[in-house]
Design brief:
Blueprint: H1 12-32, E1 35-36, E2 47-48, H2 52-58, H3 61-92, H4 99-107, H5 114-125, H6 132-139, H7 147-150, H8 152-177, H9 181-189, H10 194-222, H11 226-231, H12 243-253, H13 257-286
Antiparallel strand pairs: 1-2
Helix pairs in contact: 1-13, 3-8, 3-10, 8-10, 9-10, 10-13, 12-13
Length: 289
């Protein structure tokens, strides 16, 4: 005798709440992106302009520079986070004297806010007049480099890695600890050296965790805002401006609500497109039993 389950409505309040919090702002942003609305120009009333904001953005050199900055910052940071997180996970997942302290020190930056990281590194570590780098260079009798002035995007990328590498470390270390010890022992009995154990045993077992860390890390890194705001404010010019800071710069500094909304929609489209591509590449690996 088959039992027919009645539909339950217990999840409806949560679904409605999520829709109110997430989807309604997105819909309003999409609607505003089709309007010309500049708050500091009351003489220009709100007017429906269709895709004018989008065509204006796509035709500006600043937008493509910002898109390039976002791509370079994301790829550079994501690659380094994955590589450093993987090798540190290999070092940290095995017990050794002081492993708890070492893990805590490596994971600590993950819990620090972006604004605090930016202010600390800009004013305490990299300040060429009185920062720690000044004292280190004075000790070795070398000229103090102005890293934030000469290589601003690279410095921001380094700070992003310092912030998010612990996340990759946590995910990959959990993956390493889930590998059955019997597989590694069997490989050792068969005469596999460290390199072969890494390639044929460890990496196949870590494939799911690498895919998950890359997708989540992409979401976290592509929306970097606080580090840009507290270090360079997107300058000089637009050389360190990424898409999230460009949205802020256009909307809250230029008071151009329509153009800022268009940028936000473009950012959503770019992020979702990249995620879909990565998800398709990783789908077979992640869903593999």
């Amino acid at each position: 005798m088959s039992v027919t389950k009645k539909p339950t409505f217990i999840a409806f309040p949560a679904i409605i709440l999520v829709a109110l919090v997430t989807q309604i702002p997105v819909i309003f942003t999409l609607i505003l992106s089709f309007f010309r609305w500049i708050i500091v120009r009351p003489d220009l009333s709100r007017k429906f302009v269709g895709f004018h904001n989008y065509t204006q953005l796509l035709g500006s050199s600043e937008f493509w520079l910002v898109l390039q900055n976002t791509f370079l910052l994301t790829v550079f940071s994501l690659t380094l986070c994955l590589i450093l997180g993987f090798f540190l996970a290999l070092l940290m997942y095995r017990p050794f004297p002081g492993v708890g302290i070492a893990r805590t020190l490596f994971i600590a930056p993950f819990f620090v806010m972006d604004s605090v990281i930016g202010v600390f590194w800009k004013n305490v570590m990299l300040e060429p007049s009185f920062g720690l780098i000044k004292h280190i260079c004075s000790f070795f009798h070398t000229k103090t480099p102005e890293l934030l002035s000469h290589y601003p995007l690279t410095v921001i990328g380094g700070l992003v890695v310092w912030k998010w590498m612990p996340f990759f470390l946590l995910v990959l270390m959990a993956g390493l600890q889930s590998i059955p010890s019997s597989q590694i022992e069997a490989a050792m009995i068969d005469g596999a050296n460290s390199w072969r154990r890494l390639v044929y045993v460890i990496l196949p077992n870590l494939a799911k965790y690498i895919g998950i860390s890359v997708m989540l890390g992409l979401i976290f890194i592509i929306k970097t805002f606080g580090l840009v705001f507290t270090t360079t404010k997107g300058g000089p010019g637009y050389n360190t401006t990424n898409l999230p800071y460009y949205v802020y710069r256009t909307t809250f500094l230029g008071w151009n609500i329509g153009k800022g909304s268009s940028l936000a929609v473009i950012m959503i489209i770019v992020t979702l497109s990249v995620l879909v591509i990565i998800f398709k590449k990783m789908k077979n690996i992640i869903t593999e039993p």
